[in-house]
């Protein structure tokens, strides 16, 4: 008995030691050997515990302390700055975190070595622009950009989204009290329906919204495909969404002339350099990818705009002045994309909102080969986490970064320090669309309404996306 006990007591420290060092020994040690042959080093850092890696540290900063940027600051303190790269193990894979402008730029540019890899292709759509790499990506991307990023496309979009938005704001004022997140989500989806497939608000649009909601939920879940799992449900939902959109595609085939009334028409009729159009499946996959890319992001940006303007009345006042002038010239008409490009201050508020919202906090890439950067190695098969939010909240890149100050955009930004939309060949395809929608919202809000935060001391949450904890509850009325 005593012998056993002393054996067990003796084993505990050994087990503890193994638990503590396992990931280092398993993942980092073999790579370090390869590195020393090549005369480079693995970036400093800590691989954490088996299976979980640094998940608990991550959650500690993001969920408990709610100071996410301290996650990186603590690494800088512990391991020094180096070139802004740290090794870790997170979300099921050994990773290199990059958090300085120049190394991020390097990763974006080396898009052959660092590819985007989505886990569940059947949910995202195998031929969607976000799923493919290399030549296939460039081809699909040109279709998507043609449909949503060209000046004439943006002009149409600006006209299409305003009626819904204006009537939504009127309804908010009637309610008198709203949760901004819920309301911006509703109007964003109504506009997506209109913009993409000409669906009017009603049971069908509502059904599509529910289906997409469950589909996106499944993208974050474990890919276990049997009845009852979120993933299984997501696959069913995707099939139903596809069926609904397929009916729309068929309807349009029987139409005689080639009219373009929405994005589905637009993307179907674009031809590439060889004169080829997208197949039906490609149209479907990319329309769905655009909805997924645009829905939550636009909702959150709009919510943050409402929040910051309530917090910074001086900004709202200046916005009003600029926009009142525009509005008087327009005599009640909707504003155009040309008006928007002349609204200098409004555009600064747009950039500042997007900078501070940090909707895309980090991006993932997979290293397809060993890559060396300034004496440090990113090993083949590891993930790269581009820690975008740290660029935008680091005082070395932006003075007094937590202050909402649109005037900072008078001067140009330090190169590579503003990567809210990512960078390189995959930079957000909807970035101009997102900006124009936000400018339109700012215009109609500031010209016609006043609002106040009901919980101005509400804290913030950072997962799955940054947001005030109360999702921005405000009292809302006509000016
Ligand atoms: C302010 C709101 C938005 C933010 C912050 C944002 C952010 C981003 C980021 C960071 C990426 C790069 C992903 C990566 O490299 O891994 C991206 C890609 C993309 N975004 Fe956005 N986005 C926004 C709005 C939109 C909207 C409104 C749409 C479309 C309606 C859209 C469609 C896309 C698409 C299709 C891609 C993939 C591009 C490609 O892989 O070539 N985004 N977005
Ligand atoms: C930025 O530019 C605007 C208009 O040109 C000016 O009114 C404002 O004072 C400037 N702000 C700063 C901080 O330079
Ligand atoms: C705050 C602001 O930019 N105000 C501008 C409003 O528009 C007039 C004329 O377009 C400008 O003179 C103001 O500077």
UniProtKB/TrEMBL annotation:
GO terms for molecular function: metal ion binding; monooxygenase activity. It is a single-pass membrane protein. Keywords: Heme, Iron, Membrane, Metal-binding, Monooxygenase, Oxidoreductase, Transmembrane, Transmembrane helix. The keyword Calcium does not apply. The chain crosses the membrane at residues 7-27, 47-65. It is found in: Membrane. PROSITE patterns: CYTOCHROME_P450 (PS00086). Heme binds at residue 428. InterPro entries: Cyt_P450 (IPR001128), Cyt_P450_CS (IPR017972), Cyt_P450_E_grp-I (IPR002401), Cyt_P450_sf (IPR036396). One of its GO terms (cellular component) is membrane. Its cofactor is heme. It comes from the Eukaryota. Its main location: membrane. Belongs to the cytochrome P450 family. This is Ent-kaurenoic acid oxidase.
